[in-house]
Design goal:
With 371 residues, the protein is mainly α. It is built from 14 helices and 9 strands. The protein is globular, with a radius of gyration of 22 Å. Belongs to the cytochrome P450 family.
Length: 371
Amino acid sequence: MLTPAFHFNILKPYMKIFNESVNIMHAKWQLLASEGSARLDMFEHISLMTLDSLQKCVFSFDSHCQEKPSEYIAAILELSALVTKRHQQILLYIDFLYYLTPDGQRFRRACRLVHDFTDAVIQERRRTLPSQGVDDFLQAKAKSKTLDFIDVLLLSKDEDGKKLSDEDIRAEADTFMFEGHDTTASGLSWVLYHLAKHPEYQERCRQEVQELLKDREPKEIEWDDLAQLPFLTMCIKESLRQHPPVPAVSRCCTQDIVLPDGRVIPKGIICLISVFGTHHNPAVWPDPEVYDPFRFDPKNIKERSPLAFIPFSAGPRNCIGQAFAMAEMKVVLGLTLLRFRVLPDHTEPRRKPELVLRAEGGLWLRVEPLS
């Protein structure tokens, strides 16, 4: 039902939003670096930028969260931290006990705030829809290509023609917000880290973007440009291999699975699949700790199993938003390298797996504006 929300006709108009959101972030960087160079925590800046662009894509709502604090954004960040913390305390898996703790109460408060925000958007959208011919109204809007995710969810029907309830729509919108900002921010932060460490690859990416946009003013990356950035795409993929934003996924076995040594994982068991482990398996990836974008040269891909590289998982329950995420990452990375030189910081980041793969104490890099 939700797959149409990610059809490229729906995604194309979001390119404008990606360009605008990254321009706001870059204006902040220019200001901070006006004295020469700025030392920045990439996670902090890029998370706000991806949240900003997602709020616009999901809700058509501009919270100006990159320029001023937003209650909604603060609640989302708090919920992510609380979920991770709760994971590590087995007794707090019991809801009754958890909600007696200060963290549980903070969780409830933040949850209520996020839900109230989404509910208000849904109600407002319903209120503005004409009472007759809602479907015709939305279909007309779809033709003008200005649908956001809430519109797509309002349009969704199952095979029996049944629509999603407001609660269903809220759950999906909340999932988009959570799944779509931190993961992309992680992917972008780590690829900038790798390119800071490998200036020769950074320069090659920059030349590719400069060549693409040389006769264009303003410098904006459009939908049809995405296929014209092969080396930049290889650099993103190799970073997603080394630092997958989601380090593990869980799956419920739908049948008995016989392992090579004859042991059996019984049907109904939930397995944790290590994306990080798969991407660092030396039997599949020689010298897995070496950052080498040429692993993703088309001629090298043919020899590998399609399941060797699974940053978006795989199969029928893979990431519904992977085209959205890759498009956003290419726009942000392309424009960043066009305007800034990214340099490594003196502190080497330590990987910190939470809901997404972060860096302990932030991922710090230096940026220098290019003339």
